[in-house]
Amino acid sequence: MEQNPYDSTPGHETVTPPLFPPRPDLYDEVGWTPHLSRDDAKIARRFWSLPDSLLGRGLGEQSPSLRRTSGEELQAHPLHALARNVYNHMVRDHLKPLAPGDWVQRWAASGLQNQTWSFNDIFGGQGFDLGAITEDPNRVAGQLISAMKVQQLRDALEKRNISNVGTAAQLRQRLRDDKRKIYRKYRVLPRSDLSHWGIQRGDTGKYAIEITDENEIGPLDMYTCAILVSPYNPTYWLSRAYCHYQHAFFDLAVGDAYRAQLLCEVLVDPSCRNRQPGLYTRTWQAVEQHIRARDRDPATGKLYAEVDLLRNLNGINYFGHTLRKAIRHVISLSLAALQCWDDYSIKEKELGKKLHMERDEILSENRYDVMEPIIKLLTPAKSKTAPEYFFYEKRAGNVFGERGYPHDADDKDRSADEFVEKATEIFINQNGSLPWNKCKVHVDNRRNNGAQLSIVATEDIKAKEIIFVEVPPIRGHLNLRKLSKGQIVQPRLRCDNCQRGLPAGHQETYSNGVQQGNLRETCRCISKQMPIAFCPAPNQEDEACAENARARYHFRACGKDWEWLHNAMRPITDELRGTEPKGLYYTHTNEAHTTLLSLLLREVFDITLHRRERDPHLMAHEIDELLVLESPQNWQNQSFPFTLAGNVQVPFDILMQLGVDIFRDLAFDTWVIQLILKKLTAHIVPWDPELRKPTEIINEKKIPKGTIQVTLSGEDEDLAILDPTFHALYLYPGFSLFNHACPKIHNAMWGYDPEVPNRLLVWSTKPIQKGEEIRIPYIHPNDPKATKITLERVLGRPCDCGGPHIHERRPKAAAI
Questions:
Q1: Given this model, what pLDDT does residue 385 score?
Q2: I want to staple 545 with a disulfide (CB 3.0 to 4.6 A). Which of 129, 275, 448, 497 is the partner?
Q3: Can you tell me the mean pLDDT for 62-81?
Q4: Domain SAP spans what residues (predicted)?
């Protein structure tokens, strides 16, 4: 019987690897917000329509692309209702991305530069019910405060978390004061309470957005408010994405447009529609309610053309095409502006293939023709001629560090006495791993880039004394699965808490223990595809590593399947087919997507979500471990890597697997994610004894043919080179405060504790006097390949240790 060709698998290397890393199979992890009410839909549309209408008028005398020039276009005009103005602006300037230095001029040309709206501009005469915000400040739920009885006053104050102790007159005054605080004040995006760090955010600084009769907001905040009211409407995400693009925040534009694209895929792609129950109905209803929020012409009483179209056979599906085109244009141009050339090329080709209209195909082709020579000109910057770039960085574009994001308060003064004292208290005085205090955090105002935190001795220190000890609060342990002669070789299990090696059979023994209810020394993660294991407890009295982990960092991530995340960071295998010998081979490596920080990012999210149970407004970039680190004002002339997968796709997928609604919870907005990634990039420390030696930067990883791979062992150089560059990364926030000094200048050295493998030690290499700064080498003192570029990339700025610098050393003379 002849075999059906569709029943046979293709031969090896005949299928192109996926363009982006795998995504998790999400189901019911996220609890979506309730369906949108008709009143809320009207409020959301009001926030959106005021700036969007000005955007339409901003085209001036120029003919828009989507114009009523023929009977066909006239009939199609309602189809463009969700994205008409953004699309017309994108098409007008579609050939090249906006240059970062041109955004002010372009923003002025959009018609939105100086436009702001007050509380009355937005809500006046609209008939919106905003609850207590617009209620008479002398009434509570319609009842006069002056007529309320004592118990009613106490109940009302208790609901507001205000003291209800006192006389009736005091209670009434307290309630009136609170009512006046919120009257005609629309506040959203509450900020972290950082008063324990000495950062006082008064009544006006507690929210990122506040609308009053005196305080007006601009287009970006208007779009943000629309999103917060109606988070599943891709129209609002697109409009804010374009607003970010116009302000040259290209990374934020990609984040918003990506979320708009996810919502559109739920609407139009049957394979996505029912994967996460509830999201499809909410997205459909959000778009439907947006169109119906303006349903009749007030002059004639007739339904608008968009509403008539909505009532036809395809409903909201009529409106998706223009919306999706505009989204893809924003993504393509933003990636080009970030110089993410690989991602840009993928998305540009995708734009041409998926949008079957001649006009858009021509736009995409013309742009690619214009961009191709620019790409060829700029790409060599990360070629073999730039050896300071690791392999995982070469695909990445660049985001500048010094420019603050719109909703970041940027009110942290790291040189303030109270901030410095708090840093000393948390990372030195309360450091349980440090049996003595020989140092403190100090401010050095002599640095070239302004005030810089440093560590100074609080007493005289002899040579070879231990000065500082720290265990990592944030860690990323990548499963270093390897191939050897076509077979997967699992790495030796290590304790996730302390990195001690575990004996053979540990997983089987403790998997059985979990089934029997023994969770003191392990957790249910031991049985997962990517097992997380912990050391056996030394005795019944001491805390087990698993208990320590559950107290410090292992929370919502526990028990979930994270194999997809590991696969997003490492080489991917497939089965060799149609040839001999058979076996597994590496098809590609997702390390190329600059995803190396993803496991660390998961830990930051997990810790933040746990702490938000008692501090509901805590922002992820402002947890203690990250707050103490440098921020945009310290990143002058410094750039950070950016890829679509590493900075947007994977972070959002991590959040959703942890149960976060990425459309509604803007405490984890794109700008927060980018700040976290920048802080981690600047301060992560690799755990690998080999990396404490002079190292050679690997910037190329060529994958041998599958038929060759199955003959190689895991130790063969051609195969071992495909191992991820870093498989264990840590953040040590206290250690990060030690500044660098080049050889002959530094007075301390650092390394890992042989007893607790991931416990970091700092010790003196020479006598240090009280009050003297303790400085360590960030680069191995004997590294012969360290260059000025290497040093500046590690430090983020020119070295200020006084020299001679590591790249200026003369080679030792040969012995005679």
A1: 47
A2: 497
A3: 64
A4: 145-179
Report the chain's mean pLDDT, rounded to a whole number.
88
Instruction: Render pLDDT for 616-648 as a digit per residue (tens, 0 to 9).
Output: 999 999 999 999 999 888 888 888 999 999 999
* 692 pLDDT higher than 60: no
> What span, in angstroms and rounded, lies between the C-alpha atoms of 807 and 799?
11
Strand spans (E) along 309-425 = 397-400
Confidence at residue 736, expressed as pLDDT on a 0 to 100 scale: 94
| CA 521/CA 801 separation, integer angstroms | 46
Contact 234, 322 (CB under 8 A): no
DSSP state of 572: E
pLDDT of the residue at 354: 61
Q: 482-484 and 487-489 as β-strands: parallel, antiparallel, unpaired?
A: antiparallel
Distances (CA, A) of 782 to 102, 569, 792: 45, 30, 17
Q: Do 251 and 642 meet the contact criterion of CB atoms below 8 Å apart?
A: yes
Pairing, β 739-740 against β 775-776: parallel
CA–CA separation, 352 vs 356, rounded Å? 7
Distance CA 138, CA 230 (A): 31
* In the predicted structure, residue 766 carries a pLDDT above the cut 50: yes
3-state secondary structure 734-775: CHHHCEECCCCCCCEEEEECCCCCCCEEEEECCCECCCCECE
What does the alpha-carbon distance between residue 177 and residue 172 come to, in Å, rounded to a whole number?
Answer: 9
Residue-wise burial string across 183-218, b where 16 or more C-beta atoms lie within 10 A, e elsewhere: ebbbbbbbbbbbeebebebeeeebbbbbbbeeebbb
Structural domains of the chain ordered from first start: 38-115+218-378 (no CATH), 121-208 (no CATH), 413-472+733-803 (2.170.270.10), 474-478+561-731 (no CATH), 486-555 (no CATH)
Contact 405, 671 (CB under 8 A): yes
Classify residue 110 as exposed, middle or buried by CB count within 10 Å of its CB (0-12, 13-18, 19+): buried
Q: Give the integer Cα–Cα distance in Å for 743 and 102.
A: 43
Residue 7 has pLDDT above 50, yes or no: no
527 Ramachandran zone, left/alpha/beta (phi>0; psi -120 to 50):
alpha
Q: What is the edge-to-edge ordering of all strands in the sheet holding 684-686? A: 474-477, 728-731, 684-686
